[in-house]
Specification:
By secondary structure, this protein is low in regular secondary structure. The protein contains no helices and 3 strands. It has one domain. A 3-stranded parallel β-sheet has the order 1-2-3, with no helix packed on it. The protein starts with about 40 loop residues before the first strand and ends in a 19-residue tail after the last strand. The mean pLDDT is about 95.
Length: about 110
């Protein structure tokens, strides 16, 4: 799924509840430069195979809310720059977002 919605500059909402992500290991740059996307719900994503989530929301400058609850990130290793330049985020709950195997969190909130 790497760069799947990258540079979708006109995208302002998206419904992802029916995506089968159980075998996806790379979601890097998934929503990069989706500059009009205001909120996103990824709570239905099956992330048990996810290893890469680097730059996932880079420069989503209008993004205010991200639902990451219920994710299983046991294999996640790289989330560098995941929220880079997302300077409109008003709500982000990471309390159920496990990061114990992550070895790269470089600049996750920079920007």
């Amino acid at each position: 799924m790497r760069i799947m919605f990258g540079s979708c500059e006109s995208l302002n909402s998206i419904e992802l509840s029916n995506f089968d992500t159980s075998h996806v290991d790379d979601m890097g740059y998934l929503f990069n430069y989706c500059i009009y996307l205001k909120s996103i719900d990824l709570s239905t994503f099956d992330t048990r195979s996810l290893v890469q989530a680097d730059f996932m929301f880079i420069t989503c400058v209008s993004l205010e809310s991200i639902n990451l609850s219920n994710l299983n990130n046991q294999k996640l290793q790289n989330m560098s720059h995941i929220f880079y330049n997302c300077n409109s985020i008003k709500y982000l709950n990471l309390s159920t977002f496990p990061t114990y195997n992550v070895n790269n969190m470089e600049n996750i909130f920079n920007g």
